[in-house]
Automatic annotation (TrEMBL), chains A, B, C, D:
SUPFAM superfamilies: beta-lactamase/transpeptidase-like
Subunit: Homotetramer.
Name of one Pfam family that matches: Glutaminase
PANTHER family: GLUTAMINASE
Gene Ontology biological process terms, A to Z: glutamate biosynthetic process; L-glutamine catabolic process
Organism of provenance: Streptomyces lydicus
Molecular functions per Gene Ontology: glutaminase activity
Gene: glsA
List of residues binding substrate: S63, N118, E162, N169, Y193, Y244, V262
EC number: 3.5.1.2
Protein's name according to its UniProt entry: Glutaminase
Domain of life: Bacteria
Gene3D superfamilies assigned: DD-peptidase/beta-lactamase superfamily
Catalyses which reaction(s): L-glutamine + H2O = L-glutamate + NH4(+)
Record-stated family: Belongs to the glutaminase family.
Length: 308, 308, 308, 308
């Protein structure tokens, strides 16, 4: 497979979609990004990396961090209690329509439906905080090591901006706390959650750092982060829950495990082959990058690769 | 009407119901109250007061305070913007089942259904805070003046205890703040709300202090707190929304405007005649005093007074 | 009280509101009615009747029939099992927002919240069918007797039209049947329900026929239809649930027990004094007559009569 | 891969789970089946078939038929309007919790979330009825041809029994009809839907008949039923929506596209390799076969095959 040629063709195909979305505007720090950006990277399981467009430009990872915090909690847990521990506090089912998020949390006694909706990610962050003592810094260190980029950093302006507009996440956290589903104080959990979301990474950084998902759990240095079945399971959760309320549609169109963020990035996995990351800030109504989804769709069409 | 004789008979009738309910146990300060208590007072519109049982024993007013904060906001508002102001931020419709509270808040863009559910009372407290600069102390002063009891006070243990177990109210407040429906900082609104709930009053104090609702808006000293139509409207909201999710049932059985609290108190109004307050800490599944409801039911049967 | 003078003034006041609403258009038979109509009648408890405008023009009673079917079921039941029977199958609580109707029915195991939402009225009709063998004809006969108008009749075009557009009511009925909450076959219950709604009556007819609600349960001929407490309880349910999702607002503005229909009629009760009926086909967004509500509001302002 | 050896080992592993579930009892015809049954078959893409236990015993396919009706509608549609047609009337997203089914249908204007919940399957059946003139017989003929078993038949007792207890499906159908989302009369759609569910097939029949899903759309005779991307997309919908409200959990544990039925059958696909069918009538709380899920889980563990 000539990855570089495929990426060039994918980029050409995705270009017309770039301006169709809307840049996230709920915080000023994200709103400033130009809608014209487009980049894509592929990291194969042998360490080779390919890229096109703005693939080395850092952007805000936002919810893509949720895939890494889940992996870190599962990695930290399997020594002691197995991966079952976190799954008592968060489900593995898709979440249905957004307007149901709170009623489901209420109806299901403060147990979020899955780790990739905000409520679920707050629980995972809370657990990571307990396990590591610092849920955001431990993630940053992991991402630096896996990506091989020691310059990765939090974006304080983004984290502060999130906190200023963080009433909805505070509501979710207090609500779960009222059911006894948080171990740490609400303000601490929210703060680490916002720091995780604020990390800046490029398509290259993310495709490389997510390599363990394509390598059945092996880290960049060959050591084992997760059991093969654990990596497989994170991929399963990404496929069923990774793209907000469009997971079914995304599976239908693209057919790959993926996790998106409102910064416009999407990370996707072809198990046993490669990890992809695409970035374009214009979002559709459900919060997924329009050009990013079109690019992944075209990538699977050109390569014939899909999990189905 | 020989109020004293009626009260004696009502107390005898209600006595068997006293032990049927459960004392609120979500905070220790309430849990300690003996389930055996029962008291009832009637204050007629001419200033006479009658009582039976523990009618002079102070208890925690809890949600009964919501009727007074609404009255104070309406009283403070009619000079300037009319009573329409607060009604842009809170509705006047019954709230349906409890499990819907959050989904309704979500579906209706952060506008609570009525001022007597917690979310609505937080909005009213927020408004009172803006209007007076101190939503809890201004209410305390008003209650002292109207009841003629200068010893009324907050119960700090109760307020602290509420705050410790206040995650659900914090969730509601942050959620409404995310829709822009709070004027003051969340922690300040919650704090004043808890202080209001913690005020200790007896049946006598409450029946006398609520006299303006039976006197079509006139205060104890004869001055006007509310227009007649404003007092009538608070009574209407009490009838349709004043007893949690049992308002329809309460109207069916008792047929009087009323506001209950989880401390076991219920205040009720017979417009143009008198204001009643009954107290017994045992609650039914919906949070209303079992013996209190039975007493009011029997009172209306004996007197033939009802609004219908 | 000079009722005639009051009615004239109320009609003048309501006139500007007549064209503000929209005529119900979900079935052709209702759509054809002119929006310009306005009529109002008062029947006092001594048998005198007063009217203004189109007060003698028949219109489709629609949901106003729900108040009469409830009364007939209560009247038929008290000999045997007391009024408790029907209340095991339908609640007495306001229904919250319309979008919740089905989820509440689902969450509450097929028990509708109250007898005045469609689901609840289907249960009441089902019960009346069991008690009388013919739920629609028995109601028609009752209305002829009470109104003194032997010419009252069903409007077949309306009943047929309802049936043609009756999928939503069929859905509700089948759903309740799946919970075992219907005694008769779904098609039979729906048919009688539509016949009841199709009855044509004037303001005069309705005000006179509803006199028993103001006379504490006594029929036009002085015989007893309901116990006084039963009549009082129907009034309570009308106040808390009688005007669709606007019951709280209606209680706030008007302060009278009332039942409205999408034909544009509203019946209202001043217990111990009189029964009112107003008609104007233009509806607000919640299905209540705009000019009708304005007229009742002004009537209470002029007379000072309200239940609060 | 020695399929036969794998099946024997899987059967031994699944045996202890056989009695853990409960046989569906909502209709007598299903209730009669012994909980002790267990069978499993694998049909590889080259035509070989392997089986273990009760793999040749017919059982009621129930909701497994939903996968075939979707395939038939997609196959019939691509000549004219492409597969887009049906997707305007039914979504592709997982459905969230069961208790939300009706509120989602209401909130989303009568468009079911996906073709594998009952509401969605009714829409697909309605479309198949329009396309073929006989939605149940056309499916039966297709299954006979693909399975090579000319004796496949409807079970009239099951179809009649479903119809007798069919109020909930009638409610869904009428509700969608009220939004204009049915092309054929409600009774006709429901009848064909029940006939489809009543078809009796063995594990062998189903594994063979579902071969086109593993063969990227090719039928047993080598002709094309679906485009490769259409087959891939049905697999995607099976993975995200095929096992009722446990789709996320099933993807997490098993990692294969699958469709289950309350008869205890589950069909699963390993694209490019084989189609599996397992049957054991004991169900878990969400309606999936307990031993069937355990068998598929163990099959993927032994073979290392998963889509992730």
């Amino acid at each position: 497979m000539d990855y570089q040629a495929v990426l060039e063709e994918v980029a050409a195909h995705a270009r017309p979609f770039v301006r169709q979305g809307r840049v996230a505007d709920y915080i000023p720090a994200l709103e400033r990004v130009s809608v014209d950006r487009f980049g894509m990277a592929v990291a194969d399981i042998h360490g080779a990396v390919y890229g096109v467009g703005d693939w080395e430009v850092p952007f805000s990872v936002q919810s893509i961090s949720k895939a890494f915090s889940l992996a870190l909690v599962m990695a930290q847990s399997h020594g002691s209690q197995g991966d079952g521990d976190i799954w008592k506090r968060v489900g593995r089912e898709p979440s249905g329509t957004p307007f149901n998020s709170l009623v489901q949390l209420e109806a299901e006694n403060g147990i979020p439906r899955n780790p990739f909706i905000n409520a679920g990610a707050l629980v995972v962050t809370d657990r990571l905080q307990t396990l590591t003592g610092d849920a955001s810094t431990s993630m940053l260190h992991f991402l630096r090591e896996e990506s091989g980029n020691p310059h990765l950093a939090f974006d304080q302006a983004v984290a502060d901006s999130e906190a200023e507009h963080g009433d909805r996440n505070a509501a979710l956290a207090h609500f779960m706390a009222s059911f006894g589903n948080l171990e740490n104080p609400v303000p601490s959990v929210i703060e680490h959650y916002f720091w995780q979301c604020s990390i800046e990474m490029s398509c290259r950084d993310l495709a490389v750092a997510g390599g363990f998902l394509a390598r059945h759990g092996l880290r960049a240095d060959g050591s084992r982060l997760l059991e093969a079945r654990e990596a497989k399971r994170i991929n399963a959760v990404m496929l069923t829950c990774g793209t907000y309320d469009a997971a079914g549609e995304f599976a239908y169109r693209v057919g790959l495990p993926a996790k998106s963020g409102v910064g416009g990035g999407i990370i996707a996995v072809i198990p046993g082959r490669c990890t992809l990351c695409v970035w374009s800030p214009g979002l559709d109504a459900r919060g997924n990058s329009v050009a990013g989804a079109a690019a992944l769709d075209h990538f699977t069409t050109l390569t014939g690769w899909s999990v189905f």
